[in-house]
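Human:
Take a look at this sequence-structure pair and walk me through the tokens.
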Amino acid sequence: MTPQVYAWDGIRPVIDPAAFVHPAAILIGDVIVGAECYVGPGAVLRGDFGRVELKPGSNLQETCVCHAFPGKDVVVEEEGHVGHGAILHGCLIGRNALVGMNSVVMDEAVLGESAILGAQAFVKAGQTIPPRTMAVGSPAKVLRELTEEEIAWKRQGTGVYRQLALEARDRLTVAEPLSAVEAGRKRAEAPDYDPLVLERRGFSERP
């Protein structure tokens, strides 16, 4: 299955063979997707005013939007993790950093290496979130430094998406919906290598 790919002024997107880009994602122009990247359905990477680059091992989840500001590329460094619905505009997401769901990172902003940006945060133009810190709110403010355990936990979570990028091409297929739930229906399960699986089992059980 092929994503929706468009050239802009003769410049075509590049997708590494070891990446997974969902067929419902849209890539336009000067877009580079590195090895073991995951790009979810509904994501839009628009490289018409500048370059959008996902470096190896990073992920861009469902309905995210990336657009370069004139003269300012969008770059997600290695192991960058961009949660569902986030918007990146002319900014830099550092190595092993995490952008929370529905957050917005504006022009010339920098999210430092191994930093975590909380859900629905707003990083204003030109703002820098220092490495290894947690920032939340609108506008985003630094709460505290992260512990080594938190940084390792984040890296493990991004590893899940790296593995998903390798597995998705074989596990995702086009299908017709059923009209009723079949007997003994198989349940979708988080993979055993997801670091949240054991943690969640410690305080909750499926009803």
Helices lie at 148-171, 195-201. The longest helix spans residues 148-171. The chain is about 15% helix and 30% strand.
